[in-house]
């Protein structure tokens, strides 16, 4: 190992930026090591070394601009920028959503390539957010350089989105340097290795354990229905004619635990529609979910939910909600209701080119976690199993992930819909799949509903053993 890297490891250990022992993480889990590089700015000698190390990593890379992810990496990037005579830009941390203010400070031109420096990589999430901000401003991102890769597979995670990661030092480097200096005993080093090898997977609870840990009655009802009906299938019954609607529903009702409607699609809607719907829900034992995608201010959605032609709150036990207008929409919808109702927040969408960003998704999850009283879970999607797993890991175990955009025979519909397979959706961690045309466009919806239910349930069962 290069002398500079070795020195860096010893220095980080000396100043307490790197510690071994037992540390409690935010998640409540405990970790055998702790890294916090925020204090390095107070040690000019260490910074000098880091700048040399960064410079030599950057030698062979092509970029027009540099940035560091605030706060820790920004002063590092600033120094490297001066030494390499390459312009610096940076992304404002406090501007969280696009379109509301200037996101990138500094001079740049569209199409330029920006290299991103950061101090640590763990899950890759903040890297994706940084890249997204740069790309949104018209810059290209290819390379990330991190001081410490504290993950098991940082390079792989970034490669899944087409980025290249170079790390100055890894956990393994630290273990070997400190081990060779007798600063770390072998059993603790092994503990660290084991911990790092499985950092992304939270302790996995079975579905039954998750149910026991869930306190929201509306969320428990969903979980209980899934177990009772041995079904993870939500039917999306987007047809215009009520007779056809009830015909398909009666044939498929036994296979589903929940029905998803778009009631405003029904051409011949009358209040009797609801009576008949509720009768079938009783007959086949399924829940009712109106995919209204509420998105307005609290006072307006309150009326949209409770009044008008459809009086959705009277019969839909669950509804979808966009968080674009902020958390107060939840009070507008679910506050002061006689019968409790619950929402699913749109955290990610299946439609090609949708405008949901990583930052937006994170913020939706933050609201949803605070509001378990009226948020049973999220609507989400992903590009592949690994991507869905990473997303699922951010969702609390006492909330559900429902996944639309699932089809066993098609990859898209020519109108932007993108389909995943049932197996990928469930293996990624979806608790239920939402299937529309895969079932209703068939000549035999009953057989298709059974096929989807079985495919999902079989995968779900193997994961919950
Ligand atoms: O991101 C999304 C969110 C939803 S709720 N993508 C979706 O497709 N949906 C809904 O799921 C969509 O409105 C439709 O009702 C259903 C998918 O239907 P399918 O026919 O493509 O399976």
Structure description:
The protein folds into 2 domains: 194 residues, Rossmann fold (3-Layer(aba) Sandwich), CATH 3.40.50.2020; 257 residues, Aldolase class I (TIM Barrel). It has an 8-stranded parallel barrel with strand order 9-10-11-12-13-14-15-16, surrounded by 6 helices. It has a 4-stranded parallel beta sheet with strand order 3-6-7-8. α4 links the parallel β6 and β7. α2 packs across α3 and α17 packs parallel to α19. The chain is α/β, with parallel strands linked by helices. It is elongated, with a radius of gyration of 25 Å. The structure holds 6-sulfanyluridine-5'-phosphate (S5P). The site of 6-sulfanyluridine-5'-phosphate has 18 residues, from β16 and α18.
Q: CATH top level of the largest domain?
A: Alpha Beta
Output the strand order for the largest sheet: 9-10-11-12-13-14-15-16
What's the end-to-end separation, in Å? 44 Å
Strand fraction equals 15-25%
User: How would you sum up the global shape?
Assistant: elongated
CATH topology of the largest domain: TIM Barrel
**What is the CATH superfamily label of the largest domain?**
Aldolase class I
Task: Identify the quaternary structure here.
Answer: single chain
